[in-house]
């Protein structure tokens, strides 16, 4: 039975709503990053279904702790969401962010090779690994698009991919890398886009103006619950390779702000502020659609 959701962004038709994950019964699930937005949602769904789930509560840069955890959990499904975000926090401490985002992923991959050779591993990567396009360009970004991160967060996530993919492939560990585009959730707080806009809209009187930097910048944005639907669909099918996880549709920052204003019942005018250059990050989801349509459900 599908549960009603209060979603600001539409659920794409190719991503099934998977609130009930009881079909994963019998799997041993290992999850890092369960205190983050996406990891928390997945952990809650696993708990609701009574699944055998082990949550990593340590520091992913501690190779010994990661190794002991994987050995004890003996997982068949591994979801790696632990990461340092947002971009501003990464910029404040790039060394720590690189250790967590890149080396943490490597420690998990190495432990999987040692103790869980039959497992399927999902790495949550990011659209930040791509070179953003000028916002006048409407061509979605495919998995073959140039890898030129514009942020150090993107640098660290791309480093994670480059560290683990070759060794997992060499050791024949089933794995999937999800390059997740923008997402939002009610538990997020600034400096993320949606909560930042909501906070600013709250301070604008009805009929007033909201000045927004680069309102013509374009983002492919989903609700976080929908992102987890996509991750679970990939897990059920044991999909492999690198896949964009997004809607395939773009919204300008102005359109997102207008939706938020409508949601809170406020009439506002959105005006540009500053001289920042807008860009576009919209996912080409053709490969994701194909993977979900053609892969055989794991039994």
Summarize this entry quickly.
With 299 residues, the protein is an alpha/beta fold. It has helices at residues 37-48, 63-73, 87-92, 94-115, 152-170, 193-202, 224-237, 253-263, 286-294, and strands at 28-32, 52-55, 77-80, 120-126, 133-134, 174-180, 182-184, 209-213, 218-219, 221-223, 241-245, 251-252, 269-273, 279-281. The chain is built from 9 helices and 14 strands.
What keyword list fits this structure?
299 residues, alpha/beta, 4-stranded mixed sheet, 9 helices
Tally of strands:
14
Note the gap between the termini.
Answer: 21 Å
Count of helices?
Answer: 9
The CATH topology assignment of the domain at 22-184 and 223-247 and 282-294 is Rossmann fold
Could you report the average pLDDT, rounded to the nearest whole number? 94
Give, in spatial order, the strands making up the sheet with the most strands: 2-1-3-4-6-11
Helical content band: 25-40%
Q: State the shape.
A: globular
Q: What is the CATH superfamily of the domain at 22-184 and 223-247 and 282-294?
A: NAD(P)-binding Rossmann-like Domain
Radius of gyration: 19 Å
CATH class of the domain at 22-184 and 223-247 and 282-294 equals Alpha Beta
Provide the structure class. Answer: alpha/beta
Sketch the major β-sheet.
6 strands, parallel
The helix/strand series, from N terminus to C terminus, equals EHEHEHHEEHEEHEEEHEEHEEH
Q: What CATH architecture label of the domain at 22-184 and 223-247 and 282-294 applies? A: 3-Layer(aba) Sandwich
Are there runs of 5+ residues with pLDDT below 50, and where? none
Q: What is the strand content?
A: 15-25%
């Amino acid at each position: 039975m599908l549960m009603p959701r209060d979603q600001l962004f539409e659920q794409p038709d190719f991503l099934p709503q998977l609130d009930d994950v009881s079909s994963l019964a019998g799997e041993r699930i290992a999850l890092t990053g369960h205190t983050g937005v996406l990891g928390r949602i997945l952990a809650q769904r696993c708990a609701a279904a009574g699944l055998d789930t082990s949550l990593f509560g340590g520091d992913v840069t501690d190779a010994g702790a990661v190794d002991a955890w994987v050995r004890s959990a003996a997982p068949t499904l591994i979801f790696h969401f632990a990461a340092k975000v947002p971009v501003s926090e990464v910029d404040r401490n790039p060394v720590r962010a690189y250790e967590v985002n890149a080396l943490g992923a490597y420690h998990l991959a190495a432990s999987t090779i040692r103790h869980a050779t039959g497992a399927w591993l999902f790495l949550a990567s990011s659209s930040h690994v791509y070179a953003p396009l000028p916002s006048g360009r409407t061509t979605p970004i495919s998995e073959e698009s140039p890898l030129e991160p514009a942020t150090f967060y993107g640098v660290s996530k791309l480093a994670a991919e480059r560290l683990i993919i070759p060794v997992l492939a060499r050791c024949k560990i089933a794995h999937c890398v999800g390059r997740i585009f923008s997402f939002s959730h009610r538990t997020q707080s600034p400096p993320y886009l949606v909560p930042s806009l909501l906070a600013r809209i709250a301070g604008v009187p009805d009929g007033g103006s909201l000045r927004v930097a680069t309102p013509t910048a374009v983002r492919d944005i989903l609700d976080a619950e929908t992102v987890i639907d996509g991750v679970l669909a990939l897990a059920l099918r044991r999909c492999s390779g690198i896949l964009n996880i997004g809607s395939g549709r773009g919204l300008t920052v102005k359109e997102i702000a207008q939706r938020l204003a409508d949601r809170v019942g406020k009439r506002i005018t959105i005006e540009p502020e500053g001289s920042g250059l807008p860009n576009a990050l919209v996912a080409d989801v053709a490969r994701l659609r194909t993977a979900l349509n053609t892969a055989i459900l794991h039994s």
